[in-house]
Amino acid sequence: MKRYVVLAMTVTLLAGCASAGSLRNSKPTASYAGPGSAADIASCISGAWGSKPVHLESYVLYTGTTIEIHQTENGPAVALVDIKPVSDHTVATYYSNFDEDDTWYFQQVQECVDKTPAPAP
Fold it and tell me: Secretion signal: which residues (predicted)?
């Protein structure tokens, strides 16, 4: 029985990776650069997106942070933002496969990138 549970969990995780991977293989909807840290920008975006009735998943990697939007807890990613430090600034790249108008989501990415100040020296 444990094998079946582990197998089901593995398939679910791989399905999530596949949907995020296919989003990244598409042309980005928007890309923004600003002086704020990747962690601060990710926190801002997560807070804004969290006000909507969607399921968010965040992954912090050594290359930056990814925040995925899922319409349901077990559904595929319908949008994501990759937030990465690049040289002396941070780049937030938004990818989407929403069935509806998602302008509000990428506007929140832009607002967070624009309003997050650079870390104190």
Answer: 1-20
Please choose, from the candidates 45, 89, 88, 35, the residue with its C-alpha nearest in 3D space to the C-alpha of residue 65.
Answer: 45
Q: Give yes or no for a contact between 69 and 80, defined as CB atoms under 8 angstroms apart.
A: yes
Report yes or no on whether pTM surpasses 0.85. no
The model's pLDDT over 6-38, given as tens digits with 9 standing for 90+, comes to 334 434 443 444 467 778 888 999 999 999 999
Both structure tokens of 112: 């967070």
**Given its phi and psi angles, is residue 45 left (phi above 0), alpha (psi -120 to 50 degrees) or beta?**
alpha
Residues 112, 65 contacting (CB under 8 angstroms): no
pLDDT in tens, 96-111: 998 889 999 999 999 9
* Assigned architecture for domain 2-115: 2-Layer Sandwich (3.30)
